[in-house]
Amino acid sequence: MRRGSFIEAERFARHVDKCGMTDLPLCFGVSGFDQTGSQNRTCSDRGRATRSCSASASRRGNYESRRRTKGAMAAGATRVTVPRLLVFDLDGTLWRPEMYELWGGGAPFKPNKDGNVVDRSGTEVRLLGNSRSLLLELRTDERWKDTQVAVASRTDEPTWAEECMQKIMIADGMNMKSTIDIEEIYKGNKVHHFRALHEKTGIPYDQMIFYDNETANCHDVGTLGVLCIFTPRGMTDGIWQQSLEQFAKAHKFGH
Ligand SMILES: [Mg+2]
């Protein structure tokens, strides 16, 4: 957890609201990217970042399309339509507050009526945006049958995070943990989390999407070729839909 980045993300999200911007994703990695990781400080800067992201995606998309078509013709590859691995950060992306903000409270957590949990000091840990319906869709919709779901977290309190995943409910009889195939929860640069995910699944980096509310993590993981989506307000429907569009642009051959 990088508290500075969390605060930066919060400030940025408020700034976005003030400027009336939509939650277009700021992306890093395979399909148009921000190699500096520093553009997201103002609306105008972010606008440039988004435009350069789109332009870059288009240029790279053309190149990627030609390269993939050529490669596919040679190798008889199958079409790519959806990512094979979706990776979510926990604190500030799937839920809020961050685990360190529960210090003084924390475990044990109690389930509440809306499917979230409350820590021993009465603070609620709640899923953000459309995280609940999204995790349900990923587990139940046929479209995602070949896609794995992972979490990559550097949370300060991994045992609390485990308990929250066990007790937060996505639907009747379905807890959050049961919707996640792989968990990589430990300290360190998230590049390590992704190398572990790659080794465990065999899935190429360019078949992954990563969602995180810290630009530094997006930038780091983006260097591997993973499409990384900055989520300053957590997993919203807008972010989700547009991330799939970004992925599709990077894999034009499949469409
Ligand atoms: Mg986070």
UniProtKB/TrEMBL annotation:
Q: Which domain of life is it from?
A: Eukaryota
Q: Which GO terms describe its molecular function?
A: acid phosphatase activity
Point to the regions of Low complexity compositional bias. Answer: 50-60
Gene3D superfamilies linked: HAD superfamily/HAD-like
Q: Which InterPro entries match?
A: HAD-like_sf, HAD_sf, HAD_SF_ppase_IIIC, MDP_1_eu_arc
Stretch list, region Disordered = 38-70
Q: What is this protein called?
A: Magnesium-dependent phosphatase 1
